[in-house]
Automatic annotation (TrEMBL):
Keyword check for Oxidoreductase: yes
Keyword entries, A-Z: Oxidoreductase
Family: Belongs to the D-isomer specific 2-hydroxyacid dehydrogenase family.
Pfam families linked to this entry: 2-Hacid_dh, 2-Hacid_dh_C
Protein name: C-terminal binding protein
Domain D-isomer specific 2-hydroxyacid dehydrogenase NAD-binding: 114-292
Classification of source organism: Bacteria, Pseudomonadati, Pseudomonadota, Alphaproteobacteria, Acetobacterales
Domain D-isomer specific 2-hydroxyacid dehydrogenase catalytic: 37-293
Length: 347
């Protein structure tokens, strides 16, 4: 009989062909642990996971109802940066750490954000279409309306790991950079060659507005119609964060009425989008299918990280990336020992 039972919804999300749990299991070797798939409906999952030692969250929302049914769970582990699929508040109330993989594919997302910036600015999709449709002579006149990139202003909304990596890539292009993030110290923003700014300053001064806010209830529809009205008519809006942080109806109106020039989006409010979403038919929009984090390294790195987090907690140690660190102060968890000298939760 395995000592530890890790339950996960059947099927996989964000995965490559082949499936299986060999990569997650590398870190679990010697712990007598097994990963068991459970039905994806709420009732079926609750029945299978009630006495699980850990939950490997993917594919379905881990709701308060599910969390409150758990009797032995010591960790809910996610293989993504975003944690919006888990009711973190409910997990915290139950003293269950929730972990994610916040630093596994930062470089890929930053590359993609910079790609969308350049593609949107130089109207790459539109230029490609002109060539394919025999409109060769229209290409140059279209770009004669576009200023040079050097000296333009790139504004960040939220200045976490990805935004900082984008800033590093944008600097050699000669972009002036400003950022709004009330949760990041101004000195840290400045150290990255970026000027701290208010949200209004970012919106009104930027030629490119790059959205990086995470999917949390407090930032749902953070950007609404009134925010797009503050932007320059020539501005490009880029989103590689989360679709629900933007009121999509407001963005669509801004694009239709010319309040902004272009949007380059890897994420949408509803994914995949409905076939009648107007964004799909707009020529002033560049789209990718929520793929910014994808690379040959993506699947292996995140799966190994999930296994590592599971192994740490099941051995009574601090997880590396606990998103609800207050839970680690819970009396029931004081038996845990740090991994190394001076190490604490999320350090």
């Amino acid at each position: 009989m395995p000592k530890y039972r890790i339950v996960t919804p059947a099927g996989a999300s964000f995965t490559v062909a082949g499936g299986g749990y060999a990569l997650e299991s590398e870190a679990l070797e010697g712990l007598n642990a097994e990963i068991v798939e459970a039905p994806t409906d709420t009732a079926g999952f609750i029945a299978a996971a009630k006495e699980a030692d850990a939950i490997y969250a993917k594919g379905i929302p881990i709701t308060k109802e599910i969390i409150d049914s758990l009797t032995k769970c010591r960790i809910i582990a996610l293989g993504s940066v975003g944690v919006d699929s888990v009711d973190v508040k409910a997990a915290t109330e139950r003293g269950i750490p929730v972990t994610n993989v916040p630093d596994t594919f930062i470089e890929e997302v930053a590359d993609h954000a910079m790609t969308l910036l350049l593609a949107g600015f130089r109207r790459l999709v539109e230029q490609d279409r002109m060539v394919r449709e025999g409109r060769w002579k229209e290409g140059r006149p279209a770009l004669l309306k576009i200023p040079r990139l050097m000296g333009q202003t790139l504004g960040f909304i939220s200045f976490g790991r990805v935004a900082r990596a984008v800033a590093k890539r944008a600097a050699p292009f000669g972009l002036r950079m400003i950022a709004y993030d009330p949760f990041v110290e101004e000195m840290l923003i400045s150290e990255n060659g970026v000027q701290p700014a208010t949200l209004s300053e970012v919106l009104s001064q930027s030629d490119f507005v790059s959205m990086h806010a995470p999917a949390r209830p407090e930032v749902h529809h953070m950007l609404k119609e009134q925010h797009f009205r503050q932007m320059k008519p020539s501005a490009v809006f880029i989103n590689t964060g989360r679709g629900p942080t933007v009121d999509e109806e407001g963005l669509i109106k801004a694009l239709q009425e010319g309040w902004i020039a272009h949007a380059a989006l890897d994420v949408l409010e509803v994914e995949p989008p409905s076939h009648n979403n107007p964004i799909l038919r707009m020529e002033n929009v560049t789209l990718t299918a929520h793929v910014a984090s994808a690379s040959a390294r993506f699947d292996e790195a995140r799966k190994r990280r999930v296994g590592h987090e599971l192994a740490l907690v099941l051995q009574g140690k601090w997880p590396m990336s606990c998103v609800n660190p207050a839970v680690l102060q819970n009396t029931a968890l004081r038996r845990w020992q740090p991994i190394g000298m001076g190490r604490g939760p999320n350090s």
